[in-house]
Write a structure and sequence with these properties.
mainly alpha
């Protein structure tokens, strides 16, 4: 695999885990157990900028020198980061302010699915729930 593309892909994945700690937890990654997603407008704006940056950095990698698999990986990263930024710019969180859809509806269902296999995982939930 192209080394620059591999590093960018790993950086993108780590960014996704860090900024979506509940999703990371669901994957069994306990590094962010004590955190909850930041749904502030500032965080949303920062995420849009970061997603655009990931897409631009992927686009800057010349596809001519890539293998077929690497070209697909590059294109998927560009698509994922660009469409994530595009969707965030529609400010869906502002439209989803209702009693049936949103984190308030999904969180009670997700809690039962958290892979809390060690006591420290459960202890971290106190900070998460306070978030």
């Amino acid at each position: 695999m192209n080394e620059e593309l591999r590093r960018l892909g790993e950086e993108y994945w780590e960014y996704q885990l860090e900024t979506t700690p509940t999703q990371a937890l669901m994957f069994g990654d306990h590094r962010y157990d004590d955190r909850f997603e930041d749904y502030s407008r500032e965080a949303e704006d920062a995420d849009i900028a970061r997603q655009r940056d990931f897409a631009a950095r992927a686009e800057a990698i010349d596809p001519a020198g890539l293998s077929a698999d690497d070209r697909i990986s590059r294109d998927v990263l560009i698509f994922e980061a660009s469409t994530t930024a595009d969707m965030s710019e529609t400010r869906q969180a502002e439209l989803a302010a209702n009693h049936t859809i949103g984190i308030q509806a999904f969180f009670p269902v997700m809690i039962q699915q958290f892979p809390l296999v060690e006591p420290e995982h459960a202890r971290a939930m106190v900070s998460k729930y306070q978030g």
